[in-house]
Write a structure and sequence with these properties.
By secondary structure, the protein is an alpha/beta fold. It contains six helices and six strands. The protein has one domain: Phosphoglycerate mutase-like (Rossmann fold, 3-Layer(aba) Sandwich).
């Protein structure tokens, strides 16, 4: 079984604001081009299941893929954006002045955004979803999501500690492939596959 974890394509607030679940931004022109490239990539591969986070930026990316593959798009709440609590919708300059933000970015295993979701909780929900797909023995699934859920899955299957999250980069419109076998999972992180 193969699970392709795709980060949504670019939008105009990328790198400027922590959109989280508060700002339901759509793709910009570059993002629409990236989504079209992703759809071309998957049009040449077997796709038995196509799922997306409920967020608009993920849905628009997934809709481009859906136009080129023979299966319907389904929403997967388990792969929703990380719940950043009170930080969602804030710009990064504001967050940089918050000591709790710095603590979160140094100690993901033991801290949590105010009124938000811990990294452990995020990891549990995404891994549970992947393992449910494994139990269904689906041949090939594409899930369009966000950097943090994808990062959490990669860290679990590679055995990376939550505090070492910075070791895993998940670029916009990148693909991370999980090759799921009976006894193990092989992870291939492929940044900017849409450009290949």
């Amino acid at each position: 079984m193969r699970v392709y974890l795709v980060r949504h394509a670019s939008h105009s607030l990328l790198g400027r604001m922590l959109c989280g679940r508060a700002i339901d931004v759509g793709l910009n022109a570059e993002g629409r081009r990236q989504a079209a490239d992703l759809s071309g990539y998957f049009s040449h591969r077997q796709v038995d299941l196509l799922q997306s986070s409920p967020r608009r930026r993920a849905r628009e990316t997934a809709q481009a893929v859906a136009a080129r593959v023979p299966c319907n798009l389904r929403i997967a709440p388990a792969f929703d954006e990380h719940d950043a609590g009170e930080w969602a919708g804030l710009d990064f300059a504001t967050l940089a002045r918050d000591a709790r933000w710095h603590s979160w970015n140094e100690h993901r295993a033991s801290t949590c955004p105010p009124r938000g979701e811990s990294m452990s909780e995020l990891q549990q929900r995404v891994v549970r979803h992947i393992e449910q797909l494994r139990a269904r023995a689906i041949g090939s699934a594409v899930i369009v999501s966000h950097a943090e859920p994808i990062r959490a899955a990669v860290m679990h299957y590679r055995g990376i500690a939550l505090d070492d999250f910075h070791r895993i980069e998940i670029e916009p419109a990148s693909i991370t492939m999980l090759h799921i076998m009976r006894s193990n999972v092989d992870v291939s992180a492929i940044s900017n596959m849409a450009m290949a």
